[in-house]
Amino acid sequence: MRLTKQTIALLSLPPGKTEFVAWDDALPGFGVRLREGRRASYFAQFRVNGRTQKKSLGYVGVTTLEEARNAARDLLHAARHGHNPKLAKAEARAKAALTVDALTNRYLKHAQTRLKPRSFKEVERHLRKHWEPLQALPAANLKRADVAARLQEIALTSGPTASNRARAALSAMFAWAVANGLSEQNPIIGTIRVADEVSRDHVLKDDELAAIWNACRDDDYGHIVRILLLTGQRRDEVGAMAWDELDLTLGLWIIPKARTKNGLEHEVPLSAPAVAILRGRARADRKLSFGTGSGGFSGWSASKKRLDARISKTAATVRPWRLHDLRRTMATRMADELRVLPHVVEAILNHRSGVVSGVAAIYNRASYSTEKREALERWATYIDSVLER
């Protein structure tokens, strides 16, 4: 029969039957199903990959006949072309349920098996921290405008480098999602880097060093910046410096292998100015030299902005810079101005390089203590001369 409002209204279960189907002659595969104790409902029946499947289209009296017939027509057309309507809906629901947070969890499980531990931690930090405001959104609905706006926010709060790194991490995650059928598009495509980063080969001039040093206050961050310049060590190594790593009588700082980038214990001779800074900070009730928490100093971005603001109020001209430039500047000046031998500079920086390698590296490691101390004392004298100009 052709299903109409009138014919449907006249339908009833045959005697002794608990279920009955009335097919629509006008649209094969579309029908109304009657079941004992339940409301009549529209449905479509189709075959995909040799299997017969049914899809409910709503209750009679709630869904109109026209709505049900149109939905059935679309489903049957899709099935004839090899598409599974039920699977498509399930996939759509799954994609809607896959939030940015859930996608991040899945991607990080993958990335952890592919990336080195340090690189993985960086990627995880950028995805967790910088994209946290968007984590609750369905990944499939994340728009380019959402991403672009957030990149601007990250640049303002954490700087252009953080924004660019966060952009790269999210782009890699969505590229993986697209490749694995978890997303139809990468919302990063079409966005731009919000700003250029400070060049990685940036070496500070002497007047810039003086301006930075003089703008430092006698607080945690000011002391950290000066220690970074005097020792050439990494930001996080200084920021989490523990008192039990220091022997101020000998003027020696031993960074345990658990805190170095290359996993090797590192001896850093401390020049007289560095010792003086640390002696003025010594407190018996604190395990770490800087910061108040268990992880050492925090608040890097805000402190850097305040330091830059103080510098800008002086007559000095300082190009955009970052803390790592202090380490690079020390190494460059030692080599160019003080004529410190390359392997000694490398030893101070705790670099593994081709300057000394293999068995020679093992036998030579301890022999550079004197050379490192002499070089760092000469560097402290150089800084002092810069400040007196």
Automatic annotation (TrEMBL):
What Pfam families does the record tag this protein with?
Arm-DNA-bind_3 (PF13356), Phage_int_M (PF22022), Phage_integrase (PF00589)
- Domain of life per record: Bacteria
Q: A Gene Ontology biological process annotation? A: DNA integration
Q: Where is the Tyr recombinase domain?
A: 199-377
User: Do the record's keywords include Nuclease?
Assistant: no
Spell out the molecular function terms from Gene Ontology: DNA binding
> What are the UniProt keywords, alphabetically?
DNA integration, DNA recombination, DNA-binding
Domain Core-binding (CB) span(s) in chain numbering: 98-178
Q: Which SUPFAM superfamilies match?
A: DNA breaking-rejoining enzymes
Classification via PANTHER family: PROPHAGE INTEGRASE, PROPHAGE INTEGRASE INTS-RELATED
Q: Which family does it belong to?
A: Belongs to the 'phage' integrase family.
- What is this protein's record name? Tyrosine-type recombinase/integrase
What high-level taxonomic lineage is stated for the organism? Bacteria, Pseudomonadati, Pseudomonadota, Alphaproteobacteria, Hyphomicrobiales
